[in-house]
Amino acid sequence: MAVHGASGTPSLDGQAANAPGLASTGLAIPQDAGAASSSIINSLIGDNPYFQAGFGLMGVGVGLTILRQGLVFGTTALRRRLLVSLEVNNKDRAYEWFLAWLAHNGQSAAPTSSRRTGSWLRSHQLSVETAVEQRSNGSSSVLFRLVAGPGTHWFKYGGAWMQMKRERETRSMQLMSGTPWETVTVTTLSRDRHLFSKLLAEARDLALRGQEGKLVIRTAWGIEWKPFGQPRRKRPLHSVVLDTGVSEKVERDVKAFLQRRQWYADRGIPYRRGYLLHGPPGSGKTSYIQALAGSLSYDICLLNLSERGLGDDKLNHLLSNAPERSFILIEDVDAAFNRRVQTSEDGYQSSVTFSGFLNALDGVASGEERIIFMTTNHFEKLDPALIRPGRVDLSVLVDNASPAQARTLFTRFYGGSESVQPELIERMGQQVEELTTKEMSSGREISMAALQGLFIRNNAQDAVNSLPELFVDRRT
Description:
39% helix, 15 helices, alpha/beta, four-stranded antiparallel sheet, seven-stranded mixed sheet
């Protein structure tokens, strides 16, 4: 049906039907318009020599690169929003705790009812840690523990999966210790970030349980304090027999110092304390310090002033950065500055100067919140500048065995034995005391170490009979 316009001229009904949107405007679309546009595109892409030369392909590559970067950016943004990571380096104490926790919880492949953590999965990347346990009787045992090595590991904790990456930087080493830098990165969902604190607390508690009831000995390793050997069983304080009132005097002074932190702060006094135990060899000075540290749940940092490579700056750093709740023990302080022996072409064993040692004890840069114990066999050789108050606040003589000490040590060694009656042990103890009194009046004495060695090797009666042979002339 033809549709006529106002002038009576017939319109293009075919084109109007194909383009109704343009029919009302009265515009006519030629039939070859689609063919013309197709010809233009074909000339730009198909017949264009520049496109064929590579410009078109480059544009496609740029577009794909932009798409790829967009995907990477989106993935990174999504990862940052959904995941959270915890990094622990091997300078932090939690590093060893965490690896020990992994080894402890990796004993079985599935969680048990008593273990809410689960265990890290079996891995092809393991490291071994060897521990040598030296027993008091001279025997030793070697223990091997497998821990997660450098690489990627997965484990489940608190119902959440976590990824653990252990990385080791072999191209750079720690300056003083020479060990490579290591980091552990634990990643999980952001909603489970609260599990990090629980995991670290559990690792800490596991490590502390391994040291519970034991004494940790640390030694200087460069400018750091490192545990020396395995933790040792604490020795009861009453097992170290000193003369009447000596043990109580030192213990009372240490406890009073620990309770007066605010008192020191209010008066502007540096919060530190120094003790000197002097006396002949074998009198029990070091043994008492170890027992006292164990009774107070303190550790011991053993410092050797004659150590090779130790200088004034390192000494000051070590004394100022001692671990919390620890005694710093310096043995035979009288022998540290008497003579210097060259051991090799590169110099002396130690370059610590006497003035540097004094400044480290109470100088401007010296640290606070510390307790230092020093021992010496020759009190008369010490410089008065070292034993003045502020550096040595309490000096105590730990002498050879007194009659009361000899009797007490004897009854503690042999008391409680089923083969010997208690009354007989008391009479023998009285004989030991009387014999010691007699020998001391003649200018002879015996050390506590000699008495202990005698009691270990012999029974009660043989010890009493052999005791007179161990007394020596008093030192002049």
